[in-house]
């Protein structure tokens, strides 16, 4: 089974850049999308249904902004739209699909780069998301937490840690949250299988950052540690250029 997460930075834009063809070849069983930036999801749903996906969308109320989705070959037993906190749910931040053997949470964590107010929102979201995730009974079913977390955990995950030490996305308190989350019983699937440096999932559009591989690893698939043995492989698909992010995937067996 293959699970993939991808911040598409606009679902229509990604489709125009080859997303449909990539899905045909990559063929994920579950696909988590962030920043779909589309309220009228019925405009694109037939494309994904033709590929065999059950589509569950949770767009932001503001058009052209945020929004998440889970697409799956198997129909979920249940889908939970939002986390029950209005501020985040209006921005389309989280969606959970529950399958027979596991849960998949797709999340788009807020960015704090627009100033102190949004940074405060981000820090509050981190606390609230920690609590939300831990409501799930991981002894009953594993939970995969997928998406754009907007945080680099360690120095290995960012191209210039010293100059970015005071940048949102690499602040000590943000990095500490990722550490706390992992310590609470989760594994970073990519780092389970790959300890190499210069493995990034996001690049600024400025100054040729992508061609120079001046990136940040801010997109993750986490799983509770009890299920880590199900992970066969984990990959960052840096060759896929449809967004300022690239897809991340894991292959697993149940």
Q: Can you walk through the features of this model?
A:
A hairpin with a 4-residue loop joins strand 6 (94-98) and strand 7 (103-108). The strands form three sheets. The chain has a six-stranded mixed β-sheet with strand order 3-4-2-1-14-13. Strands 5-6-7-8-12-9 form a six-stranded mixed β-sheet. The longest helix has 18 residues, at 116-133. 24% of the residues lie in helices and 26% in strands. The model has no long low-confidence stretch (mean pLDDT 97). It has 254 residues and is an alpha+beta fold. The protein has helices spanning 11-16, 19-26, 45-50, 86-90, 116-133, 172-183, 189-193, and strands at residues 2-7, 30-34, 54-58, 68-72, 78-81, 94-98, 103-108, 143-148, 186-188, 202-203, 215-216, 219-224, 231-236, 248-252. It has one domain: Endonuclease/exonuclease/phosphatase (Deoxyribonuclease I, Chain A), CATH 3.60.10.10. The N and C termini lie close together (8 Å).
Structural class: alpha+beta
Instruction: Tell me the name of the CATH class.
Output: Alpha Beta
Under CATH, the topology is which? Answer: Deoxyribonuclease I, Chain A
Note the overall shape. Answer: globular
Separation, N- and C-terminal Cα atoms: 8 Å
Query: Percent helix among the residues?
Result: 10-25%
Mean pLDDT figure: 97
- Record the strand order, biggest sheet: 3-4-2-1-14-13
Rg of Cα set: 17 Å
Major sheet details: 6 strands, mixed
Which residue ranges are poorly predicted, with pLDDT under 50 across at least 5 consecutive positions?
Answer: none
How many structural units, i.e. domains?
A: 1
How many helices in DSSP terms?
A: 7
How many β-strand stretches? 14
Order of helices and strands: EHHEHEEEHEEHEHEHEEEEE
Strand content: 25-35%
Give me the CATH architecture, please: 4-Layer Sandwich
CATH homologous superfamily name?
Answer: Endonuclease/exonuclease/phosphatase
């Amino acid at each position: 089974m293959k699970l993939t997460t991808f911040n598409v930075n606009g679902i229509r834009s990604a489709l125009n850049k080859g997303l449909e063809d990539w899905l045909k070849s990559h063929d994920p069983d579950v696909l988590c999308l962030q920043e779909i930036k589309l309220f009228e999801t019925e405009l694109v749903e037939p494309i994904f249904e033709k590929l065999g996906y059950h589509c569950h969308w949770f767009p932001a109320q503001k058009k052209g902004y945020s929004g998440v989705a889970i697409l799956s070959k198997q129909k979920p037993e249940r889908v939970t739209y939002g986390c029950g906190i209005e501020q985040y749910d209006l921005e389309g931040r989280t969606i959970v699909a529950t399958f027979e053997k596991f849960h998949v949470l797709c999340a788009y964590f807020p960015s704090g780069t627009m100033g102190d107010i949004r940074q405060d929102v981000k820090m509050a979201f981190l606390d609230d998301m920690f609590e939300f995730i831990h409501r799930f009974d991981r002894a009953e079913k594993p939970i995969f937490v997928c998406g754009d977390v907007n945080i680099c955990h360690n120095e290995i995950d960012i191209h210039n840690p010293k100059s970015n030490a005071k940048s949102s996305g690499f602040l000590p308190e943000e990095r500490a949250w990722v550490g706390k989350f992992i310590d609470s019983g989760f594994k970073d699937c990519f780092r389970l299988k790959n300890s190499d440096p210069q493995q990034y999932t996001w690049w600024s559009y400025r100054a040729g950052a992508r061609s120079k591989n001046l990136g940040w690893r801010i997109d993750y698939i986490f799983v509770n540690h009890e299920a880590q043995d199900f992970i066969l492989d984990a990959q960052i698909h840096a060759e896929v250029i449809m967004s300022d992010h690239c897809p991340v995937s894991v292959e697993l067996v149940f």
